[in-house]
Each structure stands twice: as structure tokens, then as C-alpha cells.
Amino acid sequence: MIKKTNQCELNMYKLTLSVIFLIFFSVGAFASDLKSVSVLNDQILVLHFSDGYIEYHGYHQKGADDVTVKDELDVKAVSVLSNYSLSGKDDPAYKKNVMPVKVGRKSKPSGMSMKCMPNDDNRCMSDYVLEHFIYLFLDKPLQPGKTYQLKTGSLAKNQNQFILKYNPAETRSLALHVNQLGFVPESPVKMAYISHWMGDAGGLDLEQYANTKFHLIRVKDGKKVFSGTISKQKDFETGGPDGPANQGPNGNFVAADVWQCDFSSFKQPGEYMVSTDRMGISYPFRIDADVYREPFVTTCRGLYHHRSGIELKEPFTRYERDAPHNPNVTPNFRLRYTKFRNMDSQWESAPLDVLEPLFDDSFDCRNIWGWYQDAGDWDAYVTHAVIPAFLMTTFELKPLNFSDGELNIPESGNGIPDMLDEAGWLLNHYRRAKGPTGGIAGSRIEGDNYPAKEAGHGLPSYEDVRPQWIVYAEEPRFTFIYARLAAQMAYNYKVAADNKLLSGKINSNDSIAAWKSEALKAFEWAQNNLRDGDEEKIKSHRANAEAWLYKLTGDKKWLDGFKADLEVTAGNVSKFGNYEWGIWAFVTTPEKTPAFDTALKAEMVKATELFAQKEVTESIEKNRSFRMGGNFNFKVQVGQATTPQVLPAILAWEVTRDPKYLKAVYSTCDYMLGGNQLDMTWITGVVHQYPTQVFNMDWWYNKKGIKEVVPGIVPYGPTADCDWMQGKNGDCNAWGWWDSDYAHTKCYPDKSLWPVHERWYNNRYAPPSSEYTVHQNIGPAAAIYGYLTSRKK
Fold it and tell me: What gap in Å lies between CA 737 and CA 114, rounded to an integer?
């Protein structure tokens, strides 16, 4: 039965925290009002101010219609000790009004207007709002169970005194970070982390708290069910970098010591929070076998929300949208076919003057529709082909985790697990996108131009009917990719059938035989249509297809072809990334398959391990803060801080059973799901604290005026200096709202002191931070969280 509205979307309308998890005082006012007063520990209070907000333009409005509403905080006044006093009648140390002994501050943008456009320098200078975190250091510790009155003079517009009841077992500490979804009972690593950067006051020093106890508290009755002592995970000064040394102080992502609360041995299902003596509690979380179901469903539905060519509507979503970029249904939309092969372009697109002479308007493009679109890039890219590969790899490894009907998508109820239906979305697009002679066209479908022509015009994707929407020619490279994917889908259908996951009358196009036929025909066309100079461009793609055809058919000729094309050894994995889908297919091929090469498997298993170490576990072995896996040398950009790119570790775990790989998968997901310095769940609409401003023009410009962000988006997130948006007189020169470097310059203290993983500003208009792609972020997240779900009952 199809549900009317997905539960994850309902979470957008309700506050998920119960009263006992509220910080001391919280209000919803804007301007220079105090939004909250909370604690780090018993000697540091945190005041959170907001200068205001942006009233954003919407459907058929212009960027110039944005309105900035703000009343700036007096940042000089907040540093004056005498503007604060704390008293407590039931605490002898605070019988009289007591001033803090020190004040610290950090400030950063929390929203940016689009009122200023490129080449409009003057108006860019003020169209943003800031938020401020003020740290009050106390000479005497607060006492548990005592009540205090904080006075702030004229600093806040809303109130000037607040009643604070301090109880470490009931009051959330901003220093305590944990996976807000929770942990599966058998997870080998269950941690909460303690860390905080206080701006010009530096990192939180917890040396005097070294012997502090932490407790696991059961939410339903407040009982302590597990206790331990906190320990240091990483020292900021001596612990080494978290990544490239030029990204943040000491190359450290959090710019502070990191302590930990280790409860890995605890397995009892239930809802809990971590409480730390002299500090406070964490967000609540669950220990449950299927705790990853919500992030999986939400991100996989996030893919559905980015389907092009069909309308999004009830009962599948309340975030309705007309059908974009479908020549058959989108009014006035037309695709033009070019004989230029995208595989021959140095970049992802070729210049129009190169394409123009090769347009073939006699070719009918009406069957070419139904790709995925990104945040504001409504085009199709060859890179999107990794999405079905991710989803099908997860399904093959854990088929019993998935079922028909769980995603509430149009295909739900067709007798096929929804995971495979979503994987089939792009494959069916490719199957339709045949060129004049049968090769796969549309490795690139081009029509994007941000920010000059798309931003600030109030037009959603289905009203984008510019004349130069271009379909690139059929080509061998992309056709080999399709052959590999079709073979993988045929194999997945076999897995589904073996596990009795197919039911009812299945469409004849959705069968092992149909997808096998597609794979064989595509491979033959690609091999027969090679040109001089193509060999090096297609070699790895052909090898990957050969590996999958061998796994599917057991025919030795495909194994021989794979071995002939393979350029990876256990001693040289420099090209592993080019061959990863083929290698992963081969190392998971049953050894009983005819002509199987056990020696080659042993070598490729070793290569798989080396690749997983480089891409995931090396960072943890170098003691990265919070045990976040990933490529140690990868720049903080395009989801490095938000997206669990850990599939190499999953494959290494599957073929070696070395527990370090599985630990890396769990600890990395813990970081992305709230156990990070910002307490951010990096999926819109999931749990307590998630991004509320992301780059999604169909959401900005929806007709219904829905203000809540679409669920299931994983943004690029924090960024290091020098993003890819063009700055004034150079790429790293801050300029305007589209440039994350511009937001960096508005921070206090200076950006060079800021931990790079805190550089998130809720700036919906800056692609380097608030944008995302389906293939770099949403697709991988859906696959990884899906892998960690439990078997469907």
C-alpha cells in the first residue's frame, strides 16, 4: 500500500526535541535578539545572537527582490565584562552578582541576499546577516540542580535577563557531539565526542576534566545504564593534521582537542543520550538494528525528487513540480542532436562554435528524456552513471535489506524492490537514448549557465526552455558504460529472483534476459564503432563491462578480455579508480564460475584493500579528528565533510572481513549524521539539526510557496579557501554571494583561524557550499546508508 506522504517529510513540520533536551532558554526572535543561552561545561556559558534574516525571492521574482532584515549586534559591547552578571540564590558562590572573568566570540554569516549581481560591487557589501556565539567564562563552576539568573544589560532587544537551571543530566552541552540517528547494536564503534572551538578564545580545554565520568542515560526513565571515563582522542597541538596542512589551523578540521565517550560494548536497544559530568547531555539517539533506515529512505527519495522528465506529485510527494525537459510534455522544450562525441572534448562540454557545424536536426530526440537533474544544473552528465552502480552494488551485497513499496515512488507496487526501481531510472533513460545507429547518446545533455542566466530569475526547471539544449552524439565510451550497467542490472535481477524478492507480473523489459540482451548489444556496438585514437579513452570502460559480462554469463571470453584490458596490479593501484567497477565485479564473482582465476582474485583483493586504505582508512590511521574516513589529501569541498564516501571500505570488508574497514564505515557515517563539530545531520529533513538553506532552484521557485527545504539533500557543505567560482581578478578573490570565499571574509576571527569544517553559512546561493550533485552526494549517501540498514521483516 502506498503511503500518502513519507514520514521523513512530516518531520519538516514538527519540533523533534522533547522539553528535557531544550537548552536553558530559547526564543524565536530575529534582529539582534538572543536566540539561545546554553552551556559548554560548568564554567562556560554560550550566548547565540542573530543579526536578522533574509526574505528570499520566489517564483517569478528576481534576485533583486530579496530583502535583508537586520539589526547588527554591538560587537564591542559584547566583549565588555560589566555587561553581564550572574547570580544564584541557592549557590553561595553566586549570592551576589558575579561578572564573567573572560568573554570570547566567534561570528559568521548565516544568510546572504542575491540583491547584488556580478559586477555590482557596492550592494554586495551589506546584503548578508551574521550570527554570533558569545562565550562567558566563569571563575566558579555552576552547581548541578542550582538555578541562576543571567543579566545581559542592553545587549539583546528581546529580554535582558534569563533564568538558568543547570543540570548536567538534563541540559544539552554544545560541546557534546553524537550520531543523532544512533547505532546498530553490533556496531564495533559507538562514540560520542567532546570538542568545541570558541573563536578568539581558542579551543575548549578539558585537561582539568580528564577524569570526568560519562553516562548513557535511557530516555524513557532517566536511568543510567552505562558509565565510563572520558579520554582524549586527539590533541590539537600535537596530534597532527586531519588533512592537507594548508586547510585550517595545523591542518586540523576542528581547531580544538577532541575527547571521547566510548560505549562501543553497549548493545541494548533503546533510546538514549550521553551525559557527561560537569558538562551536559547530547542529542537523543537510538540503538536499533534498523537505525539507518530513515537516512536511507530519505536520501533515496531525494533521488526521486531530482528525476527529470516527469512531474512530481501526490501521493508520492507534497513537493510538487511539473515535468521538466521532456520533449514530449514540457511546453516549447526541444533538444538538438549534435554529431560531436563528448568523449572527444577536453572538458565536460565543448564550445558552441565546435558543436554548431555538427548539429543534426533531422534526428528525432523525443525518446531522450528522464535523466537526473542537480541543484541548478538541470543537465545530464556521464558522471551520473555512478548512481545506479552505487545502488545496485548495495542491493547485490544486501538484497534482503530492501523491499517493494518502501520508498513511495511511482514504481512502488510493481513487484520489484524499490531500490532496483530507482537504480533503473537512469538505465531506462539510457535504453531510450539510442542514437541513429544504436549507440547510447546523451553522455552529456547540456543547457546550463549559472549564475549569469539562471540565478535570480524565479524560473523553475520546467520553465527553462532555452533554445540551446544539446544532446551529444552516440559514442563507444558511454555505450561501454551502459553495457556494464545493463549487465549489472541483469545480475541484480538474478539476485532478486534467487532471494524471492520479485512478485506479480513483471514487465518484460524488467528481466534478466532483457537487460542481458541490452548489455550484449551495447558492447557489440561500442566495439564495432571505435575510431582511431579511441583505445585509451575506452579501455577501462570496456574492461569494466567485460568483468560484469563475465560475472553474469560465466563465458571465458569476457574474463580474457578483462585481463587483457586491466592495468591494475597489487603493486600498482594508481589507475584503480578507472577500473574500480570492474575489479569490484570480479572480486565478488563466485569462484565456482567457469574458468575463474583465483590468482588474479588474490591480487585484485590486495589491490582493493590498498585502494580502500588510500580512500578511506588511512585518514583514521593518521588519527583524524572524530575518526572520519576519507582520502587524507582530498580538499575540503564537494561533500568531503558531508558525504560518506566509504564504498571502497565496504568492498574491502566484504572480501577480507578485516574489521578496520567496517569500523571506518560506521565511524564515518557517525560523523555525517550529527557526530560532528556543528552537530549537523548532513541530510535535509533528518533528525534534529540539518541544513535549512541549500541550492535547489526548483524548491526556491515552487508555485505552492513551500518554505521548507526538500528532504533528502546532502549539500557540499563546508569549503576550504579558493573555491571554483570566479572571484574578482582571480579565483580566490572574494566577491559576492555565489562565492564561498566571500563568506569566509565575513567571519570573526580571521578566516585563517577558523576550523574548516565549521565553514558553513546557510548561504543558499553559493554553489561551492550549498549546492550538491546527485552523483557526488545524494546517490553515494543512499547506497551507504542502505548498506547499513537491517533485513526487512
Answer: 6
- Which of 19, 47, 6, 44 is CA-nearest to residue 284? 19
Look at phi and psi of residue 718 and say left if phi exceeds 0, alpha if psi is from -120 to 50, else beta: beta
Longest dimension (CA), the chain: 88
Buried b (16+ CB within 10 A) or exposed e, 554-566: beeebbebbeebb
CA 783 to the chain's CA centroid: 12
Q: How far is CA 613 from the centre of its chain?
A: 21
Which amino acid is it at 203? Answer: G
Q: Are 177 and 688 in contact (CB under 8 A)?
A: no
Name residue 548's amino acid: W
- Assign 3-class secondary structure to 410-462: CCCCCCCCHHHHHHHHHHHHHHHCECCCCCECCCCEECCCCCCCCCCCCCCHH
**Cα(435)–Cα(471) distance, rounded to whole angstroms?**
10
The segments of the chain whose pLDDT lies below 50 read 1-31, 449-452
Q: Are 722 and 741 in contact (CB under 8 A)?
A: yes
Angle at 268 between CA 264 and CA 274, to 5 degrees: 60
Q: How many angstroms separate the Cα of 791 from the Cα of each of 134, 386, 395, 417, 503? A: 46, 25, 12, 13, 18
Please list, in sequence order, all residues whose beta carbon lies within 8 angstroms of the beta carbon of residue 537, skipping any fewer than 6 positions away.
Answer: 343, 477
Q: How many CB atoms lie under 10 A from the CB of residue 227?
A: 14
CA atoms within 13 A of residue 738's CA, in its CB half-sphere: 20
Q: What are the CA-CA distances from residue 787 to residues 131, 245, 620, 662 (Å)?
A: 38, 33, 21, 11
Length of the chain as a residue count: 793
Residue type, 508: S
- Closest by Cα among 387, 447, 478, 293 to 776: 387
Instruction: State the cell numbers at 356.
Output: 554548431
Beta strand pairing status for 470-471 and 336-337? parallel
Long-range contacts of 360-366 (CB under 8 A, 24+ apart): 360/436, 361/336, 361/337, 363/337, 363/435, 363/436, 365/327, 365/334, 365/335, 365/336, 365/337, 365/471, 366/327, 366/328
* Cell 523489459 found at: 509
**Cell matching residue 58:** 520566489
Contacts of 593 (CB under 8 A, 6+ apart): 550, 551, 554
CA dist 724 to 351, 375, 733, Å? Answer: 19, 16, 11
- The per-residue DSSP string of 233-288 comes to EE-TTTS--SS-TTSSGGG-SSSS-EEEEE-TT----EEEEEEETTTEE---EEE-
pLDDT tens digits, one per residue of 221-272: 999 999 999 999 999 999 999 999 888 899 999 999 999 999 999 999 999 9
757: DSSP letter: G
Nearest Cα residue to 62 out of 6, 117, 120: 117
What separation, in Å, do the N-terminal and C-terminal C-alpha atoms of the chain show? Answer: 16
Residue 539 vs residues 319, 475, 564: alpha-carbon distances, Å: 42, 14, 10
Tell me the per-residue pLDDT of 277-323, one tens digit each, with 9 for 90 and over. 999 999 999 999 999 999 999 999 999 999 999 999 999 999 999 99
User: Which helix (H) or strand (E) segment is 554 a member of?
Assistant: none
* Strand 161-165 versus strand 147-151 pairing type: antiparallel
pLDDT score of 447: 80
- SS3 (DSSP) at 83: helix
Helix (H, G, I), strand (E, B) or coil at 580: helix
Kindly state the helix (H) or strand (E) to which residue 68 belongs, with its residue range.
Answer: strand 67-70
Q: Spell out the residues 6+ positions from residue 602 whose beta carbon is closer than 8 angstroms to its own.
A: none
Q: Which of 239, 194, 260, 104 is nearest to 753 (CA)?
A: 104
Query: What is this structure's pTM?
Result: 0.94
Q: How many CA atoms lie within 13 A of 605 on its CB side?
A: 15
